[in-house]
Amino acid sequence: MRFGFWEIIVILVLVFVLFGSAKFPSMMKNLAEGINVFKKEMGNKKEAGKGKKEEASEPKPVVKKAAKKPAAKKK
């Protein structure tokens, strides 16, 4: 079920009447902060997942062995 324009307006008016004009701005501020934290955490999880997949798919670097030094010449 999707809310239409008028249903949202009625809900907002009821919330405004019930909680008053003094608490309404602080409630909206807290709601916005919660949404921002949620978005940030979802972004962090996506980045962490991508990093793990990239690390697993990258080939391991080849380590070259150092060449042996020639033996010192005797005089």
Number of strands: 0
Mean pLDDT: 78
Give, in order, the helices and strands: H
Structural class, please?
A: mainly alpha
What is the distance, rounded to the nearest whole angstrom, between the alpha carbons of the first and last residues? Answer: 96 Å
**Residue fraction in strands:** under 5%
Give the overall shape: rod-shaped
Largest sheet: none
Low-confidence stretches: none
Q: Count of helices?
A: 1
Helix content: over 70%
Rounded to an integer, what's the Rg over CA atoms? 31 Å
Write the layout of secondary structure elements.
Elements: H1 5-57
Please supply descriptive tags for the structure shown above.
75 residues, mainly alpha, 1 helix, rod-shaped
Fold and architecture overview:
- 71% of the residues lie in helices and 0% in strands.
- With 75 residues, the protein is mainly alpha-helical.
- The chain is rod-shaped.
- It has 1 helix and no strands.
Provide a quick synopsis of the model:
The chain is mostly helical. It has one helix at 5-57.
